[in-house]
Design a protein that fits this description.
With 182 residues, the protein is an alpha/beta fold. Helix content is 46%, strand content 20%. It has a 5-stranded parallel beta sheet, sandwiched between helices. The two termini are 15 Å apart.
Length: 182
């Protein structure tokens, strides 16, 4: 169970949340739908939007680019709904600068070996991609102290419960903000 599984479960428990659909330059996986799972963009289109200031945050991760379109975030926030961004460490650091009120939660794998088994079991990444993702994860784990909250994604029910408690605590503390997952 990855970060996406955890976030989907959170959205079921806290229906007032909305997930901002990320943009990516990677190819769609089986079953993924354009503008539902991701905004799938060519490298050239992604770069054009970067240059035009069209992203709240963007990052390169495992040889692909990912980002949150400014329009995705603005549209949801204008509606008064709290928003979840599923982003990586680089993006979380950018959002810290542009949206300082955002609540940031670091989602950590129980161990790197568990993460390896999840990635291999998913069967969507080449062995080289798995190794690249593991190296990135190791680097990111070293930065978890930058986050106000850390949730270990080990047992789904416990992890979702902890994440739900964090979100509800912050939603009750003030106006709708942005909850981030990295």
């Amino acid at each position: 169970m990855g970060k996406g599984t955890l976030i989907r479960a959170l959205l079921e428990r806290v229906p007032e949340l909305e997930l901002a659909v990320s943009a990516t330059t990677r190819r769609p996986r089986a079953g993924e739908t354009q503008d539902v799972d991701y905004h799938f963009l060519s490298d050239a289109e992604f770069e054009r939007r970067v240059q035009a200031g069209g992203f709240v945050e963007w990052a390169e991760y495992s040889g692909r680019r990912y980002g949150t379109l400014r329009s995705e975030l603005d549209d949801r926030l204008r509606s008064g709904r709290p928003v979840v961004l599923e982003i990586e460490l680089q993006g979380a650091r950018q959002v810290r600068q542009t949206v300082p009120a955002a609540v940031q939660v670091f989602i950590a794998p129980p161990t790197l070996e568990t993460l390896r088994l999840r990635l291999v079991g998913r069967g969507t990444d080449s062995p080289e991609d798995v190794e690249r993702r593991l190296q990135t994860a190791a680097d990111e784990l070293a930065a978890q102290e930058e986050f106000a909250y850390v949730v270990v994604n080990d047992r789904l029910e416990e992890a979702v419960g902890r994440l739900e408690a964090i979100v509800r605590e912050n939603l009750s503390a003030g106006p709708a903000g942005t909850t981030l997952s990295s």
